[in-house]
Design a protein that fits this description.
Mean pLDDT: 80
Strand order of the largest sheet: 2-1-5-4-7
Order of helices and strands: EHEEEHEHEEHHHH
Structural class: alpha/beta
Number of domains: 1
Shape: globular
Radius of gyration: 16 Å
Number of strands: 7
Low-confidence stretches: 1-11
Length: about 190
Amino acid sequence: MRSSGSTPRPSRNGPLALYLEVTGDDHPKACTGRRLLHRGLVKSVRSVGRVFPAPVVLDPYAEEPLSAADARAAVRGGILAVDCSWNRLSAQGGFPEETVRLTGPGLRRRLPILIAANPQHYGRIAELNTVEALSAALYVLGRRDEAAGLLKGFRGGDGFLEINRERLDAYASARSPERVRELEQTLYGGASP
């Protein structure tokens, strides 16, 4: 029996915890992150005190791609996305380390190369919006139903899975970051995110 002060252990079978840091650079009506928060599908970093165990941090400039090898870490600490402007990310070369304070090292991972289906970046390689990024992460980690559920009600949501189905299935079957890189080479012939 647990003491009343202990926290429950994350379940492998329950939904993954999704966290979001909203920087406020995007237009509020186009911000999928804010809509995810409003719908209660993600937790705000601010609401949980900005300090986390070691989640998987989605960082488009991280060296290592997300793979099935990161599933255990995601179950333990969740997935964290930072919702900010692509222009800001490009200028800074990623988001600053202090954007979110982690209590552990945090696994910074970029998503494998995918194609955006959102109205702002439709057809562009690796320019996903926040809901697409979190959905892709869930899919790659073997959580297909959660990935599809997250996209419901977002413009381009159904299209995102349709456009990327072959790639997502291939990435989800990859057991290591090295295999994900090989698949990226095969699918894109050396294109980089």
